[in-house]
Amino acid sequence: MGQPQSVAWPASIDKAFEDAGIPLSADVSFSKDSTVCKKVIRRGLNKKLPNEAARVRISVLDATDGSEKLPGFVGPVEFDFLLGDGEVCDVLELAVPYMTEGECAEVSSTMPRWCEEERLGLGEIHADKVVYTVEVLNVELTKELEIMAEDEIMDFITAREAVGKRLQKAGQLAIGAQRHRAVINMIARAVPLIQSKKHTESGKMAGKMAAARINEQACIAYWKKKRMAPGGGRRQKPGLTTIHVCTGVNCREAGSKAVLAEIEELADMVGGCIVESSCCLSRCSASPTASVVTTDKAGKETEKSFERIRAPQRSAQVVYEATGEMPSLEDSDLLQRFQQARLVSTALELPATGKWNQALEPLHRAEEVAKDGDLVDVVVALTQVLENVGLFQPALDRNDWLIEGMPGSLNTRFQRSSLFRKLGRTTEAIEVLKDIEKDLNAGGPLVSKRLFTKVKEEIDTCSKQTDVPATKIGGYERWNLESVQPVSQHTAVFEFRCSEEKASLPMAGHLWHRTLLAAVGDNDEGPLPWIERDYTPISTVVEESSGTCKLLIKVYPDGAATQWLRNIPLGKTVLLSPPRVTLLAPTLVPVDMLGRGHTPTGVLLVVGGTGVTPALQVLEIFRSEHAQPIVIILGCRAGDMLALQPLQDHVSSRASPTTIRICVSDAACGSVSFAAAPSPLSYDEAVRAFPNLNFHQGRITQDLLASSVDTLGLEGLRAVVSGPQAMNDSVSDQLLVAGVKRSQLTVMKA
């Protein structure tokens, strides 16, 4: 493995700016659809971008349609304004946040109405394209939240909240949505900085966050409607084809950011289509995914989906579908660059899953090939993962390199002190912390009290430490296996009790899962002696709050994790992650679609085997809070009919219409995992024992899916599919045939 110390820190001006997120060319449009783009003519004086409400002075030097000067332009004209307040036309508000002091750039837009500005003599623009030449003359940054007093933080957030509402009311929807998004981000940053009870206990921050989210989504919805209205923006032209590349969380873990860049580059080779990123396309079990949407002369859209785009050849097929021309992949250097970009993209997403064993090897390989800014990101991620798994010295080696390039980074320095302490080098840890304290003191009385408190607590911990502390796997909690209750010959409920002082609790009102570390020893999934598996608990929030977690798990003959779990003794300590949100409720969409899903008028859940566990969570959440009708179709095998009693209980207790259909296929052959399991019910016995459930012999059919859709109605429907990979693919296709739109479909990762 190459050592980061041997790689030079980015030195060239362009590379340094690229690393800071300031490329020579950038899509700065609100929806990232290339309607507003910026191209640098001259680099600025530094790499510091204007922050929220910064005072900016710019000069618009020229205005053309791409070739000829726009009639009426009276420039050069200077503007002095607060960024984000809507004092200048939208295209300048969109571009200037991506420009540094002294920078000169061309700002081009295919939305002329966003460029209209009376002070430029351009109250009306009739060109198809506008290109402004803009120079940033001066930037006065606002104070960062971290050096504001608590009351000052609240006043600033409240003021920006008011600006967002004003812009929203005035119809400046793109800029208004940006302000609401800025408020959301500022609140997330502010929460750990605020200790005053008058701000935290009153619910002010939570209320502001909720209001900002609602207002942001309202802006987006009205903006889209306005943009597609006649004269309000640009309609998709007849015959135009758009490639939508999913960048939802599961696709990102499969490298979809690199796939997006790859398809963009291949599409540029042949022309004739638009490439856009998309939120979740609801095929999470087949990531990365994309769809090709073509609009005919009558305005009717047709769509073709592409799944498992895991090689450049597959990306080329997507482009061929969109353009009718196959881009060339004969350049070996191009293919190598694509492959390396996929590796880096995937590696950078994996740490967010908390699956350290799966993340470690890709990060090591990405470290070998990443360059410049990507290399910094990879080393930051790798350092954290190494620390999380107890490999402190390799983590410290990389921290040395990060400190060299980012000597002022508080996070990197705090991590350094932590690594020294975990290695038993407490004297060096205290030295680092005292240096941080010195720098904080130099920042004056407005530096957050929380940072001073953190430094003092860390120094106190180091001073009291006498031995090298025991290694603890970061991001996981200790639980003891309390009982194993077989419910069939292949499946059991594994009950755990938390041995920590306090267990992390699920976010109430949403679906969640936990990740289990199975200590199987050497394995093919990574260099660490365990493998990671996600499970959806069947325990309620109340049970979880009392320190109990119940997992319904099927034990497979060749399943490394489940065989390990089956054979460990009662009382054995295992590691489970804190709860992670799987789907948001009541919209039942992935987390990255927060605010984008609609509250359904009816819910269809199609699940298979132990995939019934998310359905049980949905029924628990929808028991009293949500009155939508629900239809559940459970596919299972004879001898392995799971969760029938709790399903029947929910049908009996839920006031709203709840229909549960059990499709029972032939029993599976093979070994028995739990010989002491209760004797399985026959099909007829199950029908008699559970009269509130509707039983069907055979597999889930197209007719059954179609009738369930008809029962709930297509309008406002949300369909969720959870089961083995083959079932997910088959059921998804059948639901689309039944008229369910892809935007109404959530397919959970198998």
Outline the structure in words:
With 750 residues, the protein is of the alpha+beta class. The radius of gyration is 28 Å and the shape is globular.
Outline:
This protein has 750 residues and is α+β, with helices and mostly antiparallel strands.
Shape: globular
Radius of gyration: 28 Å
If classified by CATH, what would the architecture of the largest domain be?
Answer: 3-Layer(aba) Sandwich
Spatial separation of the terminal alpha carbons: 33 Å
And the CATH topology of the largest domain? Rossmann fold
Structural class: alpha+beta
Largest sheet: 7 strands, antiparallel
Low-confidence stretches: 1-17, 197-202, 228-238
Number of domains as seen in the coordinates: 7
Helix content: 25-40%
Q: Into which percentage range does the β-strand content fall?
A: 15-25%
Just give the CATH class of the largest domain.
Alpha Beta
CATH superfamily of the largest domain: Nucleotide-binding domain of ferredoxin-NADP reductase (FNR) module
What's the average pLDDT? 85
User: Given the structure, what is the number of helices?
Assistant: 23
